[in-house]
Amino acid sequence: VPRDRDGTFEPQIVKKRQRRLTGVDEIVLSLYAKGLTTGEISAHFAEIYGASVSKETVSRITDKVIAEMQEWSARPLDEIYVAVFIDAIVVKV
């Protein structure tokens, strides 16, 4: 943590004692929800963002929400769901 004599320095991008940037968790969870494996997510970060995120880090991030995802997928479903399909055609005359 950078310091100054008065102890008033506050970093703006990476906060004190923060280990990862804020958006990383959300991006990892989004990619995991789309069906990418931990290796594919790690390769995606290297290719797109130029950042090194290990497979273990990706696993730790996804393990935080895995119980919540399993609970959601095992929830009781309603008997009836209402769906409305709208179709239209535009013909220039």
Helix count, per DSSP? 3
The average pLDDT is 83
* Proportion in helices: 40-55%
End-to-end C-alpha gap: 69 Å
Beta-strand content estimate? under 5%
Structural summary, described in words:
- By secondary structure, this protein is mostly helical.
- Helices cover 45% and strands 0% of the residues.
- It has three helices and no strands.
- Helix 2 (38-49) packs across helix 3 (55-73).
- The N and C termini lie far apart (69 Å).
- The mean pLDDT is 83.
What attributes characterize this protein structure?
single chain; 93 residues; mainly alpha; 3 helices
Summarize the structure.
The chain is mostly helical and 93 residues long. It contains three helices and no strands.
Task: Please describe the topology of this protein.
Blueprint: H1 23-33, H2 38-49, H3 55-73
Helix pairs in contact: 2-3
